[in-house]
Amino acid sequence: MFIMSKVKKVYTKIKKKWSFDNTGKFTLKKFGLFIRMNIEIAKKNPLLFFGVVFFTSLDAIFAAMLPLFSSKIITTLVQNNKQWLFNWMELDSTGWLYAIAINLAIIIICEYFTNFTIALYSAQIEVMQRLKILKALTDQDVDFYFDHVSGNILTRLVGDTQFLALGVQQFLTNLIYAFSGSITAITIMYTQNLYMIATLSLVYLLIANLFCVGFFIDMRRKLILAFDIKRETDADMTDRINNISLIKASGTEEFEIKRLEEKNKDYENGLTKFTHSSALLNTSLTFVIQLLIPIIFIIIAVQYLSNNQSSNSLGADIALIFPLLSTLIGGIAILLPSLRSATAASNAANRISELTDPKPMVHSNLKGYKIDKIDKIVLDNISFSYPKKPERIVIPPTKLIFEKGKSYAFVGQTGSGKTTIAKLLLRFYVPTDGKILINGEYNLNRINLPAYLNHIGYVEQEPQILYGTFLDNIKYSKFDATDEEVIQACKKAELHDFIMSLPDQYHTVLGQRGFILSGGQKQRLVIARVFLKDPDVVILDEATSALDNVVEKEIQDKLEELIKGRMCITIAHRLTTIKNVDEIYVLGPNGVGIVQMGTFDQLKKQPGHFRNLYEAGLME
Fold it and tell me: Locate the ABC transporter domain: which residues (predicted)?
């Protein structure tokens, strides 16, 4: 038992030293993710990947052969004879000059194609990962965005894809070049009967690489933490810029500057720790490299003195050996930046996977049945709890029927679940139990979602305005609409005159989130979008709650026109929006569900929750 206890303690120490907790992203598993991404790209672009490997290897091989050719030309000039080219042909000094010229030409060509293919390869990695992230983000459930800061998502979409592509570019080319060049250099040494030097160089190469890798593994945590701090700082800065209005309105510019200075200081401190370790490693490698050169000199001197070889032969061999040693040393020198690039890339790959790996619960069912109209929607005994809080019931078992040409409203205090009804009808969420039947027979979970949503018009409290022109925004619900159809929709929403008063009219760029528009104009734009779409169902989710009374009255008139002849479901915040609906459902607090139903006039006369809200002015 005592021995087992000791073994366990030793194992724990080793594990603690050589592994990470959740804040450290460089583990074999996570580095494997980086490798798998490379394999995935290589499979999709085999010819391009082959080009990278082929031209990089060829570039390194011919670069390593230059010292051999230089040595041969010295020998031919000194001894006035011919030298063999790999037992293939004998060349005189002129022939070796041609060989060097051809070699240099091949190196230049290979260098060009290496740079060209690796640039294309890394660009494809960046583009493919961005598209993969965008697809994953568009497929994700709505609540995914409640747990992820937008700045963090943007940092991963833009920054981490670049880090991954750059890391692959540097790691792949450096690794292939160093490996091919080192193997070629040692092979040439053996073929030229430099056995002792070749063996010593090989042993040195292995030891130096193992030392470099081992040392780097020990300090990788500092590098990863520095990377993570930087990315978190970038995400935080993006989030603050997105909320610049709050900062300006609060007069907290100095506070934000100091706060960001502190965050950047954390990054600087983290990077300083890594830089210290990196400098120590570089110093150690430099010492080992400098130590190798005099050792090789001593070996050469001893060999030539013992064999009584001529100084001419010595000069030729030195012209061969030291450039080959430079090739080996160069391979070691680029190992550290290659490992650093691989670490940054593996960390980026892991952060990207945090966006792409989560599986959504709601799927578009593109192969499902495509409905051509919506006449009726049945909530067939549905209930709902949020997936992350299954114990909290938001909507208890509920059965309702909505029909075309009629209007319905849900009212209740905040948290009663009225907006959740709208989210379920839009299929942002899936009912925990029960089902939503379209036209009384098709389960919403199984039909083609885009085809279904094509018949739904949605107007919410915060109008969704894209960066683009009026035409871009209004056509977003119907991309094939003509400009004339857009104009007619804007006239119905009473937005046309305002648009025509602008210099660029319908081609006016609205800016981020439509910042050039007032709240009422934004809602008119959304209403025009719905008019253009001409849906069977209109869902109004507190559509006028953020507007003042005058603008609300104007918008409400447009909404009344919009919902004529359609099925309309209103999530009510103000009394004025539900006076004329056919059926009102009153939701009680804390997930009790529907506690009353009826028309506005009926409910305000009945004792109960609705009248309490009405008399308390909570629905004004």
Answer: 377-616
Report helix angle 195-242 to 2-18, nearest 10.
70
State the SS3 of 109-149: HHHHHHHHHHHHHHHHHHHHHHHHHHHHHHHCCHHHHHCCC
| Confidence (pLDDT) at 10 | 37
CB 514 within 8 A of CB 525: yes
pLDDT at site 56: 92
Q: Which two three-digit tokens encode residue 34?
A: 């980086």
Q: How far is CA 409 from CA 249, 541, 543, 583, 600, in A?
A: 36, 10, 12, 6, 10
Contact 530, 459 (CB under 8 A): yes
Contact 617, 575 (CB under 8 A): no
Which residues are registered as beta bridge partners of 539? 458, 569
Residue 179's pLDDT is what? 87
CA–CA separation, 201 vs 181, rounded Å? 13
- CA gap 585, 408 in Å, rounded: 8
What is the distance between the alpha carbons of residues 319 and 317, in angstroms, rounded to a whole number? Answer: 5
- Residue % of the chain over a pLDDT of 70: 79
Q: Are 91 and 82 contacting, i.e. CB atoms less than 8 angstroms apart?
A: yes
Look at the pTM and tell me if it is higher than 0.70. Answer: no
Q: How far is CA 418 from CA 222, 302, 376, in A?
A: 49, 91, 20
Q: Averaged over 252-277, what is the pLDDT?
A: 75
Instruction: Render the burial of 456-474: b for 16+ CB within 10 Å, e for the rest.
Output: bbbbbbebebeebbbbebb
Domains of the chain: 16-356 (1.20.1560.10), 404-426+447-616 (3.40.50.300)
Cα 256-258-262 angle, rounded to 5 deg: 115
Cα gap 412→603, rounded to integer Å: 13
Helix (H) or strand (E) holding 317: helix 311-333
Task: Decide: 489 and 529 in contact? Cβ < 8 Å.
Answer: yes
3-state secondary structure of 399: strand
Vertex 600, ends 594 and 601: CA angle to 5°? 125
Neighbours of 74 (CB within 10 A): 21
Classify residue 236 as exposed, middle or buried by CB count within 10 Å of its CB (0-12, 13-18, 19+).
middle
For the chain, the first-to-last Cα distance in angstroms comes to 74
